[in-house]
From TrEMBL, chain A:
One of its GO terms (biological process) is iron ion transport. It comes from Arthrobacter psychrochitiniphilus. The keyword ATP-binding applies. InterPro entries: AAA+_ATPase, ABC_transporter-like_ATP-bd, P-loop_NTPase, Siderophore_ABC-ATPase. GO terms for molecular function: ATP binding; ATP hydrolysis activity. SUPFAM superfamilies: P-loop containing nucleoside triphosphate hydrolases (SSF52540). Keywords: ATP-binding, Cell membrane, Ion transport, Iron, Iron transport, Membrane, Nucleotide-binding, Transport. It is a peripheral membrane protein. GO terms for cellular component: plasma membrane. This is Iron ABC transporter ATP-binding protein. It is found in: Cell membrane.
Length: 251, 362
């Protein structure tokens, strides 16, 4: 369980995040949705201790994020930002192998190599594993980074817009994969998503963020309604019954 | 070429391949995450390393033996070689310092186009030298030479850079880009002050000063070595032991934090070691602005891996080959020993351009 209590972050006198109180249950996929600049990514990076908060506390599985050592947290939670600095002379497999760093400290064992192979296969990157990162497309690189985070083998996985740069096929595959990781491996996955329909279909919980505060939290059935979505996104949204569940139409 | 086959037989470093040596012999196309992923890359790495060792030994021996009037192996030969040996040792120290400092600095700052020497080290050295001549006249040059002065210069340079790094990285706006910018501005400012003072010097004083401001192995005094060698060896070994962490730091702040490193602490440690190395090299031989950059870039091209455990040895060897090679040429072809920085910049720059244009990436 991830617990945020009275978390605040001030950017300037009129731009602030919080106070946020939120409980993200263990297991399943939780999607953070909301308009641009609402603070979804900020919340996610604060949970993943990439960004400090000004006040409040965040606990992951009982560990206080600001007091637990980064080394120990790396075995509990992994976090991936939208944009990553990449080293040119690094192959996909070498990148994924960095995910084992918290466990192996750079000295890879047979078990580490197996975990790396599993993670690569899970993301369908076997063909590309010896390619260098600068020879990949944005979407392929994105998948390689997700593979690295999965190889880290943490109970909690935080991803900031993992569908960025991905085509239809890989977007759907990525969400199915995350869903499977949550169901089969019991991981708790928190993702920032832009497309509400992906959230509605694949997420177990949806958390709507607006103007720095959490305005809604619930199952897709509760969130996927005309009234809630129109309020959150500040634009008229109509939810219709699609062939595979509710579909938000906003254009 | 002689030692290439010998080198090829060298087994892959155990650390680099993890637990893979067993797997590799068992079934051939194994999947491994080693730093040199394929047999071809491995072979290429060790052949290039062997060639560099060969060249380094060749130039090193050439510096001792070429133009040595005594027959090789006689007592007189070794007497003369011993005298020249100092400059070979100085070159080794400078190669280790510049190569390891630049590679580490570039990784810690995630920037492949800067070198630590523009962060005020060299301009501080130039300002100290110029100031001595400006305020004390031609005699000032000798006043800033000597072991205590050597130590003071190192302490000054390390102190300045640590104050800058510490202040900028721990502040509220702790940010590498701002740190680099301010470092460059301070360097530029100190440089302008030096140029101003140089303008006011008499021609004869200026002439004396100019000789000191060319990076030159001849600037080094043998009495500096007992201080310079331990500093360079200790800092070098610490960086080498830190190589696996450096690999992670090179991935950027967010990824490093995600993988459990205290990014700020790790970067500060690398920058401290870097500034010790740069200060030692600069106080020993003077400014070598381009050498570190050239060596680091060539090392990445030739080693073809991200792993610092492989890049470091390559960079140090390239550094030594470049230094000893240019020294050898300057001494025996142009009879202008000392001013090696000129030939390093001319030839090194050409080689650098060749690589960049041919490969099209840094």
């Amino acid at each position: 369980m991830i617990t945020l209590s009275a978390v605040k972050k001030n950017y300037s006198s009129d731009v602030a995040i919080g106070p946020v109180d939120l409980q993200i249950p263990s297991g399943g996929v939780t999607a953070l949705v909301g308009p641009n600049g609402a603070g979804k990514s900020t919340l996610l990076t604060m949970i993943g201790r990439l960004l400090g908060m000004d006040s409040g506390a965040i606990e992951i599985a009982g560990y206080d994020v600001s007091r637990t050592s980064s080394k120990d947290l790396a075995k509990i939670v992994s976090v991936l930002r939208q944009e990553n600095h990449f080293v040119t002379r690094l192959t996909v497999r070498q990148l994924v192998s960095f995910g084992r760093f918290p466990h192996s400290k750079g000295r890879l064992t047979v078990a580490d190599e197996e975990a790396i192979s599993r993670s690569i296969d899970f993301l369908d990157l076997g063909e590309l594993e010896n390619r260098y990162l600068d020879q990949l497309s944005g979407g392929q690189r994105q998948r390689a980074y997700v593979a690295m985070v999965l190889a880290q083998d943490t109970d909690y996985v935080l991803l900031d817009e993992p569908l960025n740069n991905l085509d239809m096929k890989h977007s759907a595959q990525m969400m199915q994969m995350l869903h499977r990781a949550a169901q089969e491996l019991g991981r708790t996955i928190v993702v920032v998503l832009h497309d509400i329909n992906f959230a509605g279909h694949y997420a177990d919980h949806i958390c709507a963020v607006k103007d720095g505060v959490v305005t809604e939290f619930g199952t897709p059935e509760v969130i996927m309604t005309d009234e809630v979505l129109s309020r959150v996104f500040d634009t008229p949204v109509q939810v219709i019954e699609g062939p595979r569940g509710p579909l938000a139409v906003y254009y | 070429m002689l030692d290439a086959p010998v080198v090829r037989r060298t087994p892959p470093q155990p650390g680099g391949q993890g637990a893979n040596p067993h797997q590799q012999s068992a079934h051939k196309p194994t999947r491994n995450s080693g730093s040199l992923p394929t047999a071809r890359v491995r072979k290429r790495y060790w052949i290039i390393l062997g060639l560099l060792i060969f060249l380094g030994v060749g130039f090193g021996f050439g510096l001792l033996a070429w133009d040595n009037p005594m027959p090789v192996g006689s007592a007189g030969f070794w007497r003369i070689a011993e005298l020249r040996g100092t400059s070979v040792i100085v070159m080794m120290v400078v190669a280790i310092c510049q190569a390891m400092a630049t590679v580490s600095f570039q990784s810690a700052t995630n920037n492949r186009i800067i070198t630590p020497s523009i962060m005020g080290f060299e301009s501080l050295y130039i300002a100290v030298q110029t100031g001595a001549v400006f305020f004390l006249g031609a005699a000032g040059v000798t006043m800033v030479q000597g072991v205590p002065q050597f130590i003071v210069q190192i302490v000054l340079m390390v102190g300045l850079s640590m104050a800058l790094y510490g202040w900028l990285l721990s502040g509220k706006y702790g940010n590498l880009a701002i740190m680099l910018l301010i470092g460059i501005i301070i360097g530029g400012g100190l440089g302008s002050i030096s140029v101003f003072m140089q303008r006011l010097l008499t021609p004869s004083e200026f002439d004396i000063l100019t000789a000191r401001l060319f990076g030159s192995v001849a600037n080094a005094d043998i009495s500096y070595l007992p201080i310079a060698i331990p500093l360079c060896v200790v800092a070098g070994i610490m960086l080498l032991r830190n190589a696996k962490r450096l690999n992670v730091i090179a991935m950027g702040k967010d990824t490093a934090t995600n993988l459990g490193l205290n990014h700020r602490f790790e970067v500060m440690r690398v920058l401290l070691l870097t500034s010790i190395l740069m200060a030692t090299s600069t106080a020993l031989v003077g400014p070598m602005t381009f050498l570190g950059f050239l060596v680091a870039t060539l090392a990445y091209q030739l080693a073809d891996t991200h792993d610092h455990r492989y890049v470091f040895p390559m960079a140090v060897l390239i550094g030594f080959v470049v230094l000893s090679g240019s020294y050898f040429v300057m001494k025996n072809v142009f009879y202008a020993q000392g001013v090696v920085s000129i030939i390093i910049e001319a030839v090194g720059g050409t080689v650098f351009l060749f690589f960049i244009l041919r490969k099209g990436r840094l």
